[in-house]
Design a protein that fits this description.
The protein has 8 helices and 24 strands. α1 crosses α2. Bound molecules: calcium ion (2 copies). The site of one calcium ion (CA) has 5 residues, from loops. Keywords: Signal.
């Protein structure tokens, strides 16, 4: 393309000169401004407009090779995903040149995992490119080479008619640097850029390959795809799950998250009132005498240091500082109605280190599974009595 461009510009100049031949008042300036229109788009902020543009790639200074639309989408997606993180790596050596039609060339160093526009002063991280590029697949289309796809490591393959149109659907859970779920010709990212040997982030650690700890199941009675993965965190092992449906040719994720906020804190009576949207349930958590005394002392010390407006902000922060983590998930018919419920055991904790209350409570959430939603029907704490105990016993 490097060689073609000068010809394109030359043609444009020639074209302008011919058109202007009749207009004897034409100046060099007019010609220059015509050429300026051909300026290539550059800059990270303009990259998302590159969608549906043709992409050609030169690898190790070889000739430019066209890419399939899917290949171009995946490369663009990776560039955009990383485009806010400036890289500290150098901008001299590169292995790839990406050329989106109409755009300035983009150089990629696969080893250092960074990219930059030609003539730009800044480079950006391109985490995951080494693993993804390792998997490129070239095919020959009408005697031309085309970068077509990336090699998939298939974790689960299911063939079933999950949208009831009478045609079998091809369902794949696969890994190719991302963990992805595809149904027929559409796909979603379940977990981006997870790397070969790790999955997750923050204080979650995973001991296995994604291929060993991620699973996909088809719950036929509900036409739901259940994705799960097992990992470990600083608090111990956990299971994370997600639900997907395939409707009208698109993959939709069913929301089942429950969040928790503190409604009121009554230190005199030792009661913290919790609210669980979107279930709209409230729950009163009783503090021990020792917790009450400690919280009162902590709060008294803080009150001395804060004026009224600081106090208001602080109180608001404390109320939103609850973290609900899910550690284990099982399916059980816990109410004996002959349908399975999803039962999740987790922890409710204060994540705001300077909050004057401490919450660290095991919790069980019960979800009813419906074809179009996964709805939280019950919430239990460990000290809720025999009914809660038998739920916690599932996880022992
Ligand atoms: Ca089907
Ligand atoms: Ca049941």
């Amino acid at each position: 393309m490097k060689r073609i461009l000068p010809f394109a510009i030359l043609f444009l100049i020639v074209g302008c000169q011919n058109a202007n031949a009749i207009d004897h008042n034409a100046t060099d300036k007019d010609i220059t401004s015509e050429v300026t229109v051909q300026h290539l788009i550059t800059g990270i902020d303009n990259l998302n407009e590159a969608q549906e543009r043709l992409l050609e790639i030169s690898y190790l200074d070889g000739a430019y090779v066209q890419t399939s639309a899917y290949f171009a989408d995946r490369i663009l997606e990776m560039l955009l995903r990383n485009s806010t993180r400036e890289s500290i790596e150098k901008m001299d050596e590169y292995q790839l040149i990406l050329h989106f039609d109409g755009y300035e060339e983009i150089y990629v160093n696969i080893e250092n995992q960074n990219f930059w526009f030609k003539n730009a002063a800044v480079s950006y991280d391109l985490e995951g490119i080494a693993e993804l590029w390792d998997r490129y697949i070239i095919k020959i289309d009408q005697n031309e080479f085309v970068y077509d796809d990336f090699e998939k490591t298939v974790l689960t393959e299911i063939n079933a008619d999950i949208d009831h149109d009478g045609i079998q659907d091809d369902i794949l859970l696969y890994y190719d640097n991302d963990l992805r779920l595809s149904v027929n010709n559409t796909e979603v990212v379940i977990n981006a850029n997870i790397g070969k040997f790790s999955l997750g982030s923050g204080n979650e650690y995973y001991s296995g390959l994604p291929t060993e700890i991620a699973h996909l199941e088809y719950i036929e009675s509900l036409d739901i795809l259940l994705y799960s993965y097992d990992g470990a965190s600083v608090h111990g092992p956990f299971t994370n799950i997600a639900f997907y449906k395939y409707v009208n040719g698109t993959i939709q994720q069913l929301k089942y998250d429950v969040t928790c906020d503190i409604e009121t804190i009554d230190l005199d009576n030792g009661i913290i009132e919790l609210h669980f949207p979107p279930t709209n349930r409230t729950y009163q958590l009783r503090m021990s005498e020792r917790e009450i005394q400690e919280s009162k002392a902590f709060k008294a010390a803080l009150d001395l240091d804060m004026d009224a407006s600081m106090k208001a902000v602080y109180e608001e922060d404390v109320k939103h500082s609850i973290l609900l983590s899910r550690e284990h998930a099982i399916f059980e018919d816990y109410d004996g109605d002959h349908t399975l419920e999803l039962i999740i055991m987790g922890k409710l904790q204060t994540k705001f280190a300077s909050a004057y209350i401490r919450i660290d409570e095991p919790i069980v959430l019960v979800y009813e599974l419906y074809p179009d939603e996964v709805m939280c029907s019950d919430i239990f704490f460990e000290h809720d009595g025999p009914e809660a105990q038998f739920l916690f016993d599932y996880f022992r």
